Amino acid sequence: MFRSVAELVEIAEIKGILLSEVMILQEMDQKNLSRTEVFANMEKNLDVMEKAIEDALQGVESVTGLTGGDAVLIQNYMREKTPLSGNLMMDAVSKAMGTNEVNAAMGTICATPTAGSAGCVPGTLFAVKNQLNPTREQMIRYLFTSGAFGFVVANNSFISGAAGGCQAEVGSAGAMASAAIVEMVGGTAKQSADAFAITLKNMLGLVCDPVAGLVEVPCVKRNAAGSSLAIVSADMALAGVTSRIPCDEVIGAMYHIGKQMPSSLRETGEGGLADTPTGRLLKEKMFGMSI
C-alpha cells in the first residue's frame, strides 16, 4: 500500500483514517490475517515491552558489569528531587535505558527496530501512558504507527548500525516514537511525519561505536537521548513547527550519510568511543586482548 512517508500520510488523509490504521490494513493484506489476529500479534510485542520495563525497574546488571541499575537510579532521583527536564522526560529516559539494560543482561526485549535501539519506543510509550491514560488499543496502535514509519525506513535506508551507524538505529527508533506520540495525542498525520523528520534530522551522522563490540556502552544511554528527542520533537510538531526538509528526503539523507561513513564507525568497535584509551582498556579487561 505504501513505501514512502508521503504515501503513508496521503492514504491516511484521503481515507480519513489514522496512520496506525493504514499499517494495520497493510498487515492484514500482506499476511492474509484478520484484524483480530494482527492486533493479537502486536499485543504480544507490547506485553514483552511491558515485562522488560518491569524487570528493569527491579534492577538488572549485565554479565560484564558495564551496564545496569541506571533506570532505578533515575526513578529514585525522580522521587527525591524535581528533575530539571520534568518527570515525563526522565520517566521516558529511565524506561528506555531500562529496556536496553534488560537486553544487555540477556533478557527478552522487542527489537524496535533493533535490539540496540529497543528502548526508545517502549520507553516513551510507557512514560506518556502515565500522562495520557490511553486505552490498551491506543497503546497497540502506538506500536503500529511506529512500525509504519520503521517500515518505510527499512525499505528505503538502514535500520542497523553495521549498515548505517547509530543514526539508523537510535535515530530511526527515536523518530518512530516521536511520530507515534503525535498520533496518540491527537495530532495529524502530517504532524507525525514532521515529528519523525525533526527527530531523525537531529540524529543524522550518529556513529555506531560500541565499546568492546558489546551493545552496552554507549548504546544504553543513546536510547535515553533518542527518547528525549522524540518527546521534544513531538511537542514541536504539535505546536505547528514543521520540517523544512520533507520526511522522505531526511530518510534519504540518512542513507547517503551511512554509505559515506567509514566501517570503523559502523558497529565494528574499531573507532569512536570504542577506540578511546578507556574503551580499549575495557575491551582488554573483558576479553584479555592486548591492543
How would you explain this protein's 3D organization?
This protein is mostly helical. It has one domain: Orthogonal Bundle (2-methylcitrate dehydratase PrpD), CATH 1.10.4100. It is globular, with a radius of gyration of 18 Å. The termini are far apart.
Strand content: under 5%
**Rg result:** 18 Å
Average pLDDT level: 97
Outline type: globular
Largest sheet: none
One letter per element, helices H and strands E, the order comes to: HHHHHHHHHHHHH
CATH architecture: Orthogonal Bundle
Helix/strand/pairing category: mainly alpha
What is the CATH class?
Mainly Alpha
- Parts with pLDDT < 50 across at least 5 consecutive residues: none
Instruction: Report the CATH topology name.
Output: 2-methylcitrate dehydratase PrpD
Total number of helices: 13
DSSP strand count: 0
Q: What's the domain count?
A: 1
Give the termini distance in whole angstroms: 51 Å
Secondary structure: helix percent: 55-70%
List the helices and strands and how they pair.
Elements: H1 5-15, H2 19-31, H3 35-56, H4 70-80, H5 87-104, H6 120-132, H7 136-156, H8 161-164, H9 166-185, H10 189-201, H11 219-238, H12 247-260, H13 277-287
Helix pairs in contact: 2-7, 3-5, 3-7, 4-5, 5-6, 5-11, 6-9, 6-11, 7-9, 9-10, 9-11, 10-11, 10-12
